Fold this protein.
Amino acid sequence: MLALLAGCSTTPKAPEEVISSPAPSPGDAAFNWEDPNAVRQPASPAKPVALAKPVAQVKPPHLVTPQTAPPEPLTTWIALPRWAAQHKVGAPQLLNSQPRTYSVSSPGGVMVLAVGSRVASWNGEELLLGFAPELIDGQMFIYGLDLQKNLEPLLCAPSLAFGTNRVIVIDPGHGGSNTGTRSVLDGRFEKEFTLDWARRLKPLLEQAGWTVFLTRNSDTLLTNSDRVVFAETHHADVFISLHFNSSAPDENPHGLATFCLTPTGTPSSLTRGYADPWMEQLPNNAFDAQNLQLAARMQSAMLRATDMEDRGVQRARFMEVLRGQKRPAILIEAGYLSNPAEAEKINSAGFRQELAEAVAAALK
């Protein structure tokens, strides 16, 4: 059960494709798209069949510039061209007609979105949206929370910056009787590989100016709540949990993914059978934008270093090590111990060194 809670024992399911509100009626054909005050509101998105209390706002740590107040959540659908014009990013460019696919660019990079698909891409790497974009009167519409929580942090916000006197907690997943998954090659446990990865990462980060704490530096049993309390006690600015994946007995799934907490009001891309209460507001939701920026940067660095399959930046709500964090926090699943080819890589000390160097590079 502990291994399941840590999120390494099953493969992420492919996100459901969702088209969640109907096309407008013929009487709406004369809608004035150029009027900046006009608002088209299709029906709210329906909850995807396969996807499953408010807290006080938390002041972000010193490594990021805190907002004076969180923006009001957008629960309407907004035409992408209009949003792009308002936010002074490049006008959407049509890439394909079937499915209708558009790109939107800013100095930070390029976002590609397709009508009817929750799978978007950011600078060529996969990103999972909350809801599938829709086509209405020839225009792509995006759900407001996806604009706020996925597009704006990457296309519009300043890059995530790390200040001085920065503190990071690295969490080697599992430990003790909580062994995690095991290698299909020789039966070695995930807990061994995550600890070795963390030990290799620590000096690299210290050389880059970080103060680094490991949640465990031996084969020690820790609960997920212990790991959250550890980060709080050490006044961490960033929290990163290191894991490897498994889909045993299926040996086919492969690739790496980076997870951050699901924003309030949207469905997760991974639930593993847990409840997925959309309106749950958790302490770490105060860092939605920074979580996504950190996850995207980490996923990019690790893909460049390892040339592994891209399983994307994904959202999950059940991962206990993320839920209570009061700082930017992510969880990395760096390959499948159930896949023979990837298990062979993970068994290699050289590969684990590559992983450590990739994480360090993303945090420079």
